[in-house]
Amino acid sequence: MAVQKADKWKLKKWFTVYAPKLFNEAQICEMPANEDSTVIGRNIRVGLNTLTKNPAHAYTNVTLRITGVNGEAAQTRLVMIEQLYSYIHSLVRRYRGIASSVSSITTKDNVGMVAKMLVVTQARVAHTKIKGIREETGKFIADYFSSNDADSVISSIIEGKLQGELAAKLRHITPINKVEVKKLEIAQASPA
Length: 192
Fold this sequence. Notes:
Layout: H1 8-11, E1 13-18, E2 27-33, E3 43-47, H2 48-52, E4 60-70, E5 73-83, H3 85-91, E6 98-106, E7 111-121, H4 127-147, H5 150-159, H6 161-170, E8 176-189
Parallel strand pairs: 1-5
Antiparallel strand pairs: 1-2, 3-4, 4-5, 5-8, 6-7, 7-8
Helix pairs in contact: 4-6
């Protein structure tokens, strides 16, 4: 006599995933799981334009991590903001200079972040100018992050305010075509 197995999908519960307060706690998706504990720690990659309803953010992806479950609602926190490779590739063209820098910084409220910046110049420039752009970018990012809290830094990156300020600061070295935050990785808040 054959033993019948229970259907695993019928045993699963559906959890509704919500964005962090920074994105007005918008509903992102629904996901199945057997228990509450198996949902916690999962990462979800979403286009930034779906959270902000702004088509200008179509080339940006956001990674959210589920931190807690309340009933069938799952709360998330922001882990990473990343530009699409195809967008970065479209910026980097022939006869242009590129300066990239990686900075590990702690914000005013002790949140560790890694910012990977990309600066594209209007024309080819000497290596000494690229080096100067890289150093100036590192100093600016360190000052900006240490004087602001994590939420204001993230919102200024999403709005493009940080990129505009950095481009204005670098124009004395050489004409700048574009400044982008290629990737921003956000760690959990370190204990004070």
